[in-house]
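Input record (Table S2, row 376):
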Amino acid sequence: MDLSPTSPEAQARALTVLGMESSCDETAAAILRRSASGETEVLADLVLGQMEAHAPYGGVVPEIAARAHAEAMDGLVAAALKEAGLTLDEIDGIAATAGPGLIGGVMAALMTAKGLALGSGKPLIAVNHLEGHALSPRLSEDVTFPYLLLLVSGGHTQLLIAEGIGKYSRLGSTLDDAAGEAFDKTAKVMGLGFPGGPALERSAVTGDATRFALPTPLKGKPGCDFSFAGLKTAARQIWDGLEAPSEQDKADLAACVQQAIARSLASRSARAMAMFRERFQDEQAPAFIVAGGVAANKTVRSTLDQAAADHGFELKAPPMRWCTDNAAMIALAGLEHLAVGDVDELNAPARARWPLDESSAKLAPVIGSGRKGPKA
Ligand code: KG4
Ligand code: ZN
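Output record (KG4 complex):
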């Protein structure tokens, strides 16, 4: 049988892939199987958070994260195999996030994957974490290419067009902080607790979103990059100016910050929708996917929903467990690459920075650094 990567036989082969993820503060292992007829099934999907370890510091501490990943990774892989009822022999490929992310953490999954690949003789697939997020909606729905994706997490704020496997173009990215960082850092200043995003959303419920005037980042600026540093500073100044802030003051500021972040995400996304329309004029109701932890925020979602409706897009969000960091999306990206014979050598590097769309990153390098390192 001809099993060259592009042969119909290779394409139609059933594949089972183990995926691993450790680029930020979630250790994860998952096993995905795609049948010869093309149905994908998640056989195991385990995620171990580290929230308690980082909570005393009010943010992710890279060294603590790296150590916790290294300690948990092996056991999690064993548990995933057990849950799937498989042995390593029955796995066709071993995929791991190889970047971008906190480098000490990235190494935990990648080195474990390399060890397993070396020991078992199975191919290694070094996955770009952002490609995992970009493909994540396809874990739960039949989302067809091309689609527009807004990735909003603690480490990333990016707008991408996914045109096909391995074919992504970045339309915009943050120039400074990620949206999740803006939530987290403001919540920290206001003493709302960690992780800040959900805490700030809870506080905002009883707040008046019209009380404080906050700047609109990059207002009227062309393109669809983001910026949240100015907003964060303005919120801090308002907070510092409040004498003995009451619960109502807190709630009002939380509501204003949440509204400003949501509005900024929606207005920059609207520009991306227009850019998408220029490139794909015949697409009827294309999908606008929002993924990442910030997608859990109800105000963000409803503001994006409105923007999508205004521009003839359909907003879709993967279920929360695949919206935030997970290994099922890494296994899926690995599986897609394995299916076409695109596998990596055992010397594949761990990368703190790894733009998904290398060509546009070279033309428009994005500066700044945050929870996950430079915003590539
Ligand atoms: O995708 P994620 O779980 O992890 C990565 O950063 O990769 O995203 C975490 C981010 C944090 O900044 C967290 O505060 C934010 O998502 N987040 C929220 C909410 N839930 C999580 N931000 C605003 N509102 C929420 N409900
Ligand atoms: Zn992520």
